[in-house]
């Protein structure tokens, strides 16, 4: 049914429990894999530029397909089907485990203990020692055997090369063409890149609509029950789920022995299995998830309406461009921070705990927002938050040990918490009644993913050409330079005052006269005086 009857009893507590559970499981599932995904690409053998292209395509699919799928699922009332299909078909990411590794680093080079490596080197020495202690009269025999064995390898190589040449000649004679034929002629690294890109495209196409579609249905359900103000609790549970996912996955993978991991391409397979397992646990919750379709809110909640509101405010445009730059910087951190940590001896344990601390620190700033708002305007808070993000990246370029990245994660209180608090205030200032979520999505989805896509594409080439150290320094210098210019641009931009009608209706007349400023207090009186003046003028004309 497209709508609910008014006689239907709505259990808000049950809806909130299901919402919190679903948000926790989905965010925990994504956090088990997504932060470690580029590290797995490195173990496969992809270069930084290839990794950047794959992640840029991933953000581009999310940017375009998430709102489109949300709109289509609402139009045809298929939200629950889209949610369940996204959870089921997200398992296609397991196909990445079937790809062979062509990297120079072994699958266990960054995670095995030195005792395991020493035992392996001891075994190799035992294999070499007997040949060195052979009697003198057997050296000629061994040499002749070795000579015949290098000769046999050369003959086999020639035969294999001739067979490959004949196969290519036959393919050309048959007129074979297309992507598969082109892929066959590529070297193994390019083959791996294109196969990875195809799998990531299919996976993102299946999983991208999940968050957008579920959030729409849940919000409209709570709004129908006059409990939309409690929708924000799902974000808190989602953040806690992400903390548990990234920290738990890093801890589990770090505790595995190298002998267990030797049966797989790498120990990163645990991240993939954790991702799909938690998605499977979220599937029964998605079946009973409370959803509601309100077609009357299409105009008020349209994404186009949010874009128009942001475009009509100079301060909102400055905030949008800042979020695009934040997305560029975040892409460098998300794609290559773990590479930088791995180069300095960090394991999955260091990585998981470091990322979990960064997520936890974001919860602190809303607790301090009341005091900060009395000292600084939202525009200044936005500048401080973006500058803190640049300072974090600059710190990442000077890592020196496994735990070196941990102190910088505390800055997440300002770099992420402050930025998104300022964005929320900006949304409340420019949004018309009913369009707050649409304006917020312009920042959190469109601007952020646009910046992440551009940053991933450019950052991969920068990292390959100049190294990850200069990538972090470059994005840090770029966003800090913008933070120097942003206060001046905010000062020069014209400010448009918007009357908060809901606040006026909720407040008493006496309270409004004591708390509000003089222009806001007298707007109704002036309007009535103008109306009286117009009426008197019309009477004089008569």
TrEMBL record:
Keyword Protease: no
Family statement drawn from the similarity comment of this UniProt entry: Belongs to the major facilitator superfamily. MFSD6 family.
Region named Disordered: 508-542
Source organism, top-level taxon: Eukaryota
Keywords: Membrane, Transmembrane, Transmembrane helix
Species classification: Eukaryota, Metazoa, Chordata, Craniata, Vertebrata
InterPro entries: MFS_assoc_dom, MFS_MFSD6, MFS_trans_sf
Membrane topology: Multi-pass membrane protein
The protein, known as: Major facilitator superfamily domain containing 6-like
One GO CC term, this protein: membrane
Domain named Major facilitator superfamily associated: residues: 22-473
Pfam families: MFS_1_like (PF12832)
Ranges of compositional bias, category Basic and acidic residues: 518-542
Compartments it resides in: Membrane
Transmembrane segments: 81-99, 192-210, 272-293, 314-337, 349-369, 404-423, 443-464, 470-489
Keyword Transmembrane helix assigned: yes
SUPFAM superfamilies, per the entry: MFS general substrate transporter
Chief location category: membrane
